[in-house]
Write a structure and sequence with these properties.
single chain, 4-stranded mixed sheet, about 190 residues, Peroxidase, domain 1, alpha+beta
């Protein structure tokens, strides 16, 4: 849907400003992430929120029951405003935008890391230290790793920071070796054909 990311940016920006005004940005971050996890793990909940023929008041009551005491009043009220304005369809993008804005405001670089197995603490610390040193000249004071385990990688690591990608996965290395072997075989075949 066109303009969805702009809507998400506007709502996320308003929420982050409120969170900093109230002095609870970390708490709001945790609550927003909890809402995001819930919406992702329970698609029916998201479908309920975006279904147009369900009354807004009913949706707000469900938000009160589902999140009352579980998330801060700021986040609970934010969800109600999103429902009232008919923007629940942009909620996942709002959450993503809020998290990005929070980390940026904290001077933290969020790095997506994929590995075949969960990182050990020593490897995680070393990776954060390397990335922190690499990006400190760009104004980042810390690095937050967004880790994902993908057994299809076989081994190694894939690191993505914004548009930059470092693919040191074993799967990619093996594919590159296979490509070189195939290219070498083709060259040998051409040599013998002549």
């Amino acid at each position: 849907m066109k303009g969805l990311d702009t809507v998400a940016q506007v709502y996320a920006s308003a929420l982050i400003e409120l969170a900093y005004q109230k002095g609870v940005p970390g708490e709001v971050l945790a609550d927003v992430q909890e809402v995001g996890r819930l919406l992702q793990s329970t698609p029916r909940a998201f479908t309920f929120l975006i279904t147009p023929n369900i009354k807004k008041d009913s949706k707000k009551q469900v938000i009160d029951r589902a999140f009352g005491g579980r998330v801060s009043e700021i986040v609970q009220n934010f969800l109600k405003v999103v429902i009232e304005k008919g923007r629940a369809d942009a909620l996942p993008e709002m959450i993503t935008a809020f998290v990005a804005m929070y980390h940026e405001r904290q001077g933290e670089l969020v790095v997506k890391v994929q590995t075949a197995q969960a990182l050990e603490d020593d490897d995680r610390d070393r990776l954060r230290r390397i990335l922190r040193n690499k990006f400190k000249n760009k104004g980042y004071t810390d690095v937050v790793l967004d880790e994902k385990v993908d057994a299809r990688l076989l081994g190694g690591v894939i690191v993505r920071t914004g548009d930059d990608l470092y693919d040191g996965s074993l799967r990619t290395r093996l594919a590159a070796i296979g490509d070189r072997l195939r290219a070498g075989r083709l060259n040998l075949e051409k040599l013998y054909e002549d």
